[in-house]
Amino acid sequence: MYRYDQYDQAMVDTRVAEFRDQVERRLSGKLAEEHFRPLRLMNGLYLQLHAYMLRVAVPYGTLSGAQMHVLADIADKYDRGYGHFTTRQNIQYNWIKLEETPDLLADLAAVEMHAIQTSGNCIRNISSDQYAGAAADELIDPRPYAELLRQWSSFHPEFCTLPRKFKICVIASDTDRAAMKLHDIGIRIIRNDAGEIGAAFYVGGGMGRTPMIAPCIREFVPLDQLVTYSEACLRVYNRYGRRDNKYKARIKILVHELGAAEYTRQVEEEFAHLKTQGIEPPIAELERIKTYFADPAFDADASDAIDRSDALFARWVDRNTHPHKQKGYAIATISLKPVGGIPGDASAHQMHVMADLARDYSFDECRVTHAQNIVLAHVRKADLYALWQKLVAADLATANLDTIGDIIACPGLDYCSLANARSIPVAQKISRRFAESGKEDAIGELKLKISGCINACGHHHAGHIGILGVDRKGTENYQLLLGGCEGDDTSLGKITGPGFDEDGIVDAVEKATDVYLAQRQEGERFLDTYRRIGVDIFKEAIYG
Amino acid sequence: MVESQYRFRDDEPVGDPAVTVDSFAEQSNASAVRIEPGDDARELLPYLEQLRLVEVNFPAFTDGRGYSAARVLREAGYTGELRAVGEVLVDQIAALRRCGFDSFAPDKPLDPADVDSAFARWPDVYQATTDGRVPIWSKRHG
Fold first, then answer.
1. Using only C-alpha atoms, what is the Rg of chain A?
2. Is residue B95 less than 8 Å (CB to CB) from chain A?
3. Which CATH number is A134-290 given?
4. What is the pLDDT of residues A121-130, one digit of tens each?
5. Where are the domains of chain A?
6. How far off is chain B from A157, nearest CA to CA, in Å?
7. 3-state secondary structure of A387
8. For B100, phi and psi rounded to 5 degrees?
9. Which of A140, A165, A213, A222 has a 20 to 30 A CA-CA distance from A99?
């Protein structure tokens, strides 16, 4: 994985010193809260219902074992012994004291980590495919391109006060595991007909209150123009994105109001100009970054055999591992969705265990997924059983990847000052009901996503089943959406009808899955059946 | 006409008041113009030779359009004074300078010690702009 050189380290250390100075001026009263607020947000520090929340960046989701250990130490030292892995592949802590934040950031900087641009109206941490560098269906590892853009976007002097937040995602396989088209800029690294590697740019996607799927505005950007093209996209947005209404300020609204063709024309005009400005790093820089992402030293003789005599282990293998490009290896996902648990939460102890397992079984590297789980990307199949036994001992062996128990949920009204309704208790009830009835296994792949308000941090638009918490005359109410999908065939879920109370929404979800179980044809997932038979049969079962 | 608290130029300051972009279009002999956030800086590009002062107004420090306006002018070759006016704060001043501003006239005067440390803070930068600083990628590859 990428390692800082003296320049990267100096940038992060400088930011710690700068933030320490800003916090001191805030605490002394010299800096007003209204002027401090964007500064702390650009450092991932939110004021929530009960305390400050700090979001730490995990660039493109990749962590070393040593970094995971420090995340655990931070949970113990500055929080209440827990961390929460997020849908942006980051981690956040919910009980942080402002005056301790500079020391926390210094602890992070000591292991090449930071909280830079994890919030605020700027370019956020860049996300990627959690199976990068390991997936059998991958063209090339997308992370070097993400790292190139991470450096370009860090402290970019022109883009620190954008109209609104800005999220970039980079993938490089046919299967989209990162919801690429639901980002402000989605980049797919591709090979063109001439055999050259380049990037397709999708601009103007997003969730929130106006979900949109990003149109492709350029099929092929050469690798030596990635930064320049990105800068052109951002400049047009910074100049013309709406600033009169916070809810219409994302780039998706600009692209929608101008039309993709006109936005593209303006970007191309800016791009032609910027190409003359010498802002692009040389290809040698990309090559330098790539050397950090070379394959680990795989055991060429590793066997594909797996002893499946332990039925619980076999079930975990079937559910939580994924094909690896290297013979004899598998990609293993550690579910952070225990039955009845809080999606994405891990205790400091569990983080230490995962760090050790990454070191012992996966070349000292792990990844955070946008579905709030942890991936060990390079595990020898011969080691899977030993790995699984250690996961069992740490309550980390839940075999429910991509099932109805593998719920994405935002923190909701339990923590968040924006939320209208709680997300976590709904997730816990659904998880328990379907695990205990055995229906979770019977249903198979079903992506269920819960947001506690229309800002959609829980990605409810992109769930095969989505749940949106709203406020209805002072009580929490939950709307049901069906048919969303974040993958290549990206689609947005549709609201089925009137909302429900907390128990009612759990019943409604069960009724929807019963329709699927009764109607499915051979090989169909919930989403496939829904797309084939349409919403009416579901509505009838739910409301009839 | 607002006084700059910081000015990184040796030439004489322009004494004329800055006119709006609209009135500049009607009386294009002016040498000083003021850009508001909604103005298109590109409208000034045909007149860069005669302009000696461009003020860019920041009514609110959170509105970042002026950063792009500054870079548009500098990238087009404008060499006159580029002055940030309005809600110009110490925590944004280094980024403003990177975008091409060489003069700062904040609504509320800034603490000189804080300004000095803000300008001295960053030993290196990741991006190339027209401010002449050598980006990190260039230092890495000589």
1. 23
2. yes
3. 3.30.413.10
4. 999 999 999 9
5. 6-109, 134-290, 313-393, 408-543
6. 5
7. helix
8. 120, -5
9. A165
